[in-house]
Design brief:
Elements (H helix, E strand, L loop, with lengths): L1 H8 L2 H22 L13 H29 L8 H18 L12 H4 L1 H23 L3 H11 L2 H8 L9
Helix pairs in contact: 3-4, 4-6, 6-7
Length: 174
């Protein structure tokens, strides 16, 4: 009733524009309310900006792989235990950076589209990765090599996540 009075007094073009704006606002609010992951304000970006964000995400992942390799050498007694705290801290930091690098919603790289289609599952996996790698870092800080070794599988779920959410390298088998 109120809207019909307002619309009758307005120019029809303004009324249509206002109606579209109100409808879009309601639709956006409803979409955000049903989003299983925190609402994100996605701002359109250029291809160059998207490419840079994908590149940065890939750099984070490569650093995680390098740090995981060092940790593997430490637990295999091929690298000094003195690097345990530093390496587990780096992995925990990398887990947080990896989680953040996907929040921008930029598709591409070797990430499958289901990263965004299954955001709730992907976000849970990333949150678990952060939590478990933090716990492993605390064990590393304490110099607890046995504890780190036991925690590694939970703290570094790379393969399980990659099997679902990452495309294999071109020319490489699964």
């Amino acid at each position: 009733m109120l809207f019909s009075r307002i619309f009758r007094k307005m120019n029809w073009r303004i009324a249509v524009a206002l109606g579209c704006f109100i409808g879009a606002t309601i639709w956006q609010s409803a979409a955000s309310a049903h989003d299983p992951v925190e609402s994100q304000n996605v701002v359109p970006i250029s291809k160059d900006e998207a490419d840079m964000l994908i590149f940065e995400r890939q750099q984070v992942m490569m650093q995680l792989a390098d740090d995981a390799e060092v940790l593997g050498a430490i637990v295999a007694y091929e690298a000094p235990k003195t690097k345990l705290a530093e390496t587990t801290r780096a992995l925990a930091k990398g887990a947080k950076e990896a989680r953040e690098s996907f929040k921008n919603g930029v598709t591409g790289g070797r990430s499958k589209d289901n990263v965004w289609a299954n955001r709730a599952d992907f976000a849970k996996r990333m949150d678990d990765f952060v939590r478990e790698s933090d716990a492993m870092a605390k064990l590393g800080e304490a110099g607890n090599l046995n504890g780190v070794t036991e925690k590694m599988i939970a703290a570094l779920p790379c393969k399980e996540c990659h099997d679902v959410y990452r495309e294999p390298k071109k020319g490489a088998g699964k």
